[in-house]
Structures are given as C-alpha cells and as structure tokens.
Amino acid sequence: MLTKQPARNWSQPLYPDFPAGEYDDRVLRVKRFMENERVDILVLWDEMNIRYFSGFHNLHWQPKTLQCAVLLIPLDGEPVIVVPDFFSGVVEGYTYLENILLQDKPHATANIRRLPVLIAEAIKNLGHGQGRIGIESGQLGGMSIPRPLNDIDSFRASLADAEFVEAADLIWRCRVIKSVAEISALKVATQAVVNAYGELIKGFHVGMTERDLGLMVRKSILDYTEDCVAPFIISSSRKIPMADVPPFDDVKLSVGDRVVLEPLPTHKGYWGSCCRVLNIGALSDDALRQDEYIDSLQDYAIGLVKPGLKTGDLMEAILERTRSDGELNYLLDMAGHGVGLNFQEPPAIAIGEENEIEEGMVLAIECWALDMRESGAYCYAVEDYVLVTKDGCDLFPGFPRDIRCLPA
C-alpha cells in the first residue's frame, strides 16, 4: 500500500545539496525534452537519475531487495516520489518535493514484489495509465531499472494500455549540460585529488605497497571532500596490466616501477578525477620522452575540443596524430568521456561515435599507451577534465604534469 505523506514537517530540506532553483531548472529542462518527444510521464528507478532530478540519496541502494525510491515526473504536474516509509525523513532532509508517497512494510517479500503494481497504480492516478511512459532505456545506455526481471514484467503488465518509450537519451540530453553548481562540485572533487598527490609526493617512501600508497591517497582525499572509492592503481610491479583494480593485493613497489593513479572522489555526488603516472625514482630518458609525448597528445586533443565536433571525429584525429608521429601503440579505444553523477557518462570519445560536443559539457580527456616488457607493464597515461565553452574549452585545475617521480 502507498500512503500519501500528509504534510512536510519542514517547509524546506535541512541538508540539500543545491538550492531549490537548481532542481526546478532540471525538471523544467527535461520537461521540454519530454514535450518534444511526446512523453507524458517519466518513471525513474535509477539511483543517479533520482538524485539528479530530486536531490534524494542515501546509502541503502546497494541491497537489491527493496527499492529506495521511484520518481515520477509527469509532463503536466509536479514530481512525485515513492519511498519506503522509513525513508520519509530522508526525503524531507534532502529534497524540496511536496508529493511524497510512502510504501508500507517495505521489507516484506510480498510487498516488495507488489511495488511495481503500486507504481503502476500511482501512474494511473496521475492520469497517464494510457499515455506514453518514458522508461530508462535507450541507445546511449548508462542507466537501468535496478529491479528483478519479474518486477519489470509485473510493472509493464500492470500498464497494458500504455505505450512505453525509451527515454534514456532525452534524460542524458538534460544531464550532459552542467550547471554552475555542478561544475563547482566537480572542481571541488578534482582539487581533492590534486591535493592528495602533493601529500603523496611528500609522504612516499621505498618499501611501500600498492595498498599503502592507495590508503595514503584515499585518506588525504577525505580531508578535502566527502567520499572516495578505492583508488584505481596500476603498477609495473604487476607482470600483467590490471586496469582499474583496487590496491588491496599488497603488491610491493620498487625503485624503477611506474604507478598509474586515478582516484575517484565525490563531492555532492559528483566525481572528480586527475590521472597521473608517477615513477619511483628517476626517469630514464626514454620514459621521459614517452611521458612528454603523451602530454603533448593530450594537449593536442584539448586544443581540438569545441562545440559541434563529433566525439568520434575527435578520436580519429588523435589516432591519426599517433600514426603520423609513429610514436606509441595506443592502448585505449577511447580518449575520454562525459562526467557528472556517474564517473563515466556519455558522450564517449571513441571511434564511430556520432554525438556532438556541446557548450556546457564537462569531459575527461585522457590519453593512454602501454609498453609491455618482461619485467612488467609500463603505462603512460594522463587525464584531466575540461569545461566546453562557446569557442573551445577551459581546463580544470590539475596536478603539475612535470612532477613525474616519487622519491626513492
């Protein structure tokens, strides 16, 4: 059963991420896209979509037994949020929403299975049981309905007279353009990485393991922002390249090793990043040359970024540069992506992509190359964020690229 919460205990949320106008603008923008696509109502189950359009968030999304929230955005009315009854305070604490529906006894298995039917009934009560219902699927992907298949089947069956419309792409069209508040959050999270690298340079010593290094970086980041997942680390001490793994294998670091660092902290849910490779001890002349080439390749890519350029064409230009220079084997099949509430969002900078770069996007521009040796995998990499402007792009603050070594 869903029960309407009669009234808010506080007229305004006590702990919102952003002012009310930020969320009002997001809803107004997505409604313009909905109107263009003739979508009568959006039904959002995805954690990040719900946070983006309402401000609701909590730490209970990992268990997949209950559903933390469902957000309904009708074209002709105000958003409605459905939450388990014990999250009523969370809704009031983080959101400005007035229309709150509470699910009774949300831990009972029978009630969990019945939730999709209750959501369908709420849609009918809003007058859209026979309308065009936007759901989180589409060509760009990147979002989903985090429910068991039988729940999704039950939801669709309960709305047999409705037409389901793929709405992921129109949601992304709204989310890829970042507001001033979003850009500020991304910069705070990214600056935390820059600060942590500075502390790592001062605190590193030979004999540390990947785990030691990763914990040092993570603890430093938490002094500057709200959260940080286990930092991605790739070291040449590993005999094979193991990308995007947490530093929990106690791999010992030695003089001459190279360590790729890509911590991922968040501020107000927005992911910062600044990938750097640090050599333990002095660089060889050859390694320095390759490092500098990767930096120049990133500079070249950043110089090309501007509104109207297709991301696939940007990737092709980068690859053509490496072919004409005859320098390095390119490792990744992409050179960047969008960022926001997900640390990897559309558009992808990859061959064949037709998405156009737009003013207001924040993109990660990254260049990677790999040198396989008998002693290990030597990686050359760099990543920074840019904000797309009217005529080009502005580079986010980053850790100085000419600092390339940890003390040995």
Structure write-up:
- With 408 residues, the chain is α+β, with helices and mostly antiparallel strands.
- The protein has 2 domains: 2-175, Creatine Amidinohydrolase, Chain A, domain 1 (3-Layer(aba) Sandwich), CATH 3.40.350; 180-406, Alpha-Beta Complex (Creatine Amidinohydrolase), CATH 3.90.230.10.
- The protein is 34% helix and 24% strand.
- It has helices spanning 20-37, 47-54, 88-94, 109-125, 149-157, 168-175, 180-203, 210-221, 285-304, 311-325, and strands at 2-4, 41-44, 70-74, 80-84, 99-103, 132-135, 163-166, 227-235, 258-267, 270-271, 276-280, 334-338, 345-350, 362-373, 376-388, 393-395, 405-406.
- The strands form 3 sheets. The protein has a 7-stranded mixed beta sheet with strand order 1-5-4-3-2-6-7. Strands 8, 9, 10, 11 and 17 form a 5-stranded mixed beta sheet that branches. Strands 13-12-14-15-16 form a 5-stranded antiparallel beta sheet, with helices on one face.
- Helix 4 (109-125) packs parallel to helix 5.
- The model has no long low-confidence stretch (mean pLDDT 93).
